[in-house]
Amino acid sequence: MTFIMLTGKVNNSETTLFENKVVHMIAVGQMALVSIFSHVIFIYLTWRVMISINFDPLIRKGNATEAKILLFFIAIFIGSGVSRFFLEILQWSQDLIYLF
Questions:
Q1: In sequence order, what are the residues at sequence separation of 6 or more whose Cβ sits closer than 8 angstroms to the Cβ of residue 5?
Q2: Which of 1, 4, 17, 83 could form a disulfide with 42 if both were Cys (CB 3.0 to 4.6 A apart)?
Q3: Structural domain total, the chain
Q4: What is the domain extent for residue 90?
């Protein structure tokens, strides 16, 4: 962005368009980073909660590994859903500025 401004080859309207694209790209990148962290955190929290619940009476003998894998997949499913809800609320609250 600084290089284009220093060369003087781009007029102000093109520079503004370029700056808008850069700002938009940064916002998309930030939202992607927030989404990744949100999913990982909520999956971890769900896993911790599920580990604290005693599922031993439901598990057949000799299937402990399969049961842990199933619990992990359930934690991913629930954690991703909670994270998606959190991210949608965040996005909707950011979109409220367009209401007024």
A1: 15
A2: 83
A3: 1
A4: 2-99
pLDDT tens track for 83-98? 999 999 999 998 999 8
Query: In this predicted model, what pLDDT tens digit does every residue of 13-50 receive, in sequence order?
Result: 666 877 778 887 888 899 999 999 999 999 999 999 99
Cβ atoms 82, 30 nearer than 8 A: no
Instruction: Show Cβ contacts of residue 91 under 8 Å, excluding neighbours closer than 6 positions.
Output: 31
**Residue 83 · residue 43 · CB < 8 Å:** yes
CB atoms within 10 A of CB 6: 8
Q: Rounded to two decimals, what is the model's pTM?
A: 0.73
